[in-house]
From TrEMBL:
Pfam families: NERD. The keyword Transmembrane helix applies. Residues 101-181 form the NERD domain. Coiled coil: none annotated. InterPro entries: NERD. The chain crosses the membrane at residues 20-38, 44-65, 95-114. It comes from Candidatus Promineifilum breve. The keyword Transmembrane helix applies. The lineage of its organism: Bacteria, Bacillati, Chloroflexota, Ardenticatenia, Candidatus Promineifilales. This is NERD domain-containing protein. It comes from the Bacteria. Keywords: Membrane, Transmembrane, Transmembrane helix.
Length: 248
C-alpha cells in the first residue's frame, strides 16, 4: 500500500498547537495575576477578556494537538487499520486533499473520517452522543460533534474536487466511513445511521465487505482519480512510503 502524507503540515500544525496551548496558559495566568498587580477599576473587565482569549487559544491548541501531536496520530492508526484489503493496490492520502484521509482502491474511493474520542459512543440516525467519561470530560477533552455531518461535508468537498480535477471519474463510487482510532473504546452503538462507523480494529473487515463484490473501475477512471489525487503530493512521490500490512 502506498501512503502519502503532508509531513510538513503535520509538523507545522503540531508546533502551532504547542504555541497556542502555551499562549493560552500564559494569558489565563496573566489574567489571574492582574488582581494583584493592578488597582484599576476595570481590572475585572481585563480579567474577563483574558479568560475569553486564553480559553480560545487553549481550545484551538487542543484541537490541533489531538490531530498532530498525540501518539499514535490518527493518520498512523489508519495506516494500520486499512489492513490487507488495501495491501496490493491501495493508495492512502493524509492531509493532502479536501478530505483529511482518503483511500483510493481499484473499486472506488473511501473518505475516512477519523475520530479520536473514546468512552461510550452512540448514534441514532444523525444524533450522536458520547458518555461514560466521568470527570475526564472536564480535562483536555474535545466534543464529539456530529461525525455524520462532518462526513457528509468531506464527501461533498471530494466530489467537487473530483469533478474539477478528474471529470472522467465524476461518477466513481465514493463512500464515507467514520473511524474511531482510540486504542480503547467502551462501546460503539450505531442505529439507523446513513454512514457506517467502526472502531479502527474493524475497518479492514468493513472495507472488505464493501468492496468484495465490486468490479474494478474502468482503467481511464482509475487513472484519472490517481492523477488528481497524486497532484498535490507531487513533491512526495519520489519519497513514497510503501506500507504493507501483514496478512490477516
Amino acid at each position: 500500500m502506498i501512503v502519502l502524507r503532508d509531513e510538513k503540515r503535520i509538523y507545522r500544525l503540531g508546533r502551532l498547537a504547542q504555541v497556542l496551548s502555551m499562549a493560552g496558559l500564559a494569558v489565563l495566568v496573566g489574567g489571574l495575576l492582574l488582581i494583584f498587580i493592578s488597582d484599576s477599576p476595570s481590572v475585572f473587565l481585563f480579567q474577563l477578556l483574558a479568560l475569553v482569549v486564553g480559553y480560545g487559544f487553549s481550545q484551538v491548541g487542543l484541537h490541533y494537538a489531538h490531530r498532530y501531536l498525540r501518539r499514535p496520530r490518527m493518520d498512523q492508526k489508519l495506516d494500520e487499520a486499512v489492513g490487507a484489503v488495501a495491501r496490493r493496490d491501495g493508495r492512502l492520502y493524509h492531509y493532502l486533499l479536501p478530505a483529511s484521509h482518503v483511500l483510493l482502491l481499484p473499486s472506488g474511493v473511501f473518505v475516512l473520517v477519523a475520530k479520536f474520542q473514546n468512552g461510550r459512543i452512540t448514534a441514532e440516525g444523525d444524533t450522536w452522543r458520547q458518555t461514560g467519561l466521568g470527570m475526564r470530560r472536564f480535562f483536555g477533552r474535545e466534543n464529539l460533534g456530529n461525525p455524520s455531518r462532518e462526513a457528509e461535508a468531506q464527501v461533498a468537498k471530494m466530489k467537487a474536487y473530483i469533478a474539477a480535477n478528474a471529470p472522467a471519474a465524476a461518477e466513481a463510487p465514493l463512500w464515507p466511513v467514520i473511524v474511531f482510532t482510540a486504542e480503547k473504546i467502551d462501546s460503539l452503538e450505531i442505529k439507523e445511521s446513513r454512514i457506517p462507523a467502526v472502531h479502527a480494529s474493524k475497518l479492514s473487515k468493513l472495507l472488505r465487505q464493501q468492496t468484495i463484490n465490486l468490479k474494478p473501475l474502468p482503467r481511464a477512471e482509475y487513472d484519472a482519480l490517481r492523477a488528481a489525487f497524486d497532484a498535490p503530493a507531487a513533491h512526495l512521490i519520489e519519497e513514497t512510503i510503501d506500507v504493507t500490512p501483514a496478512a490477516e
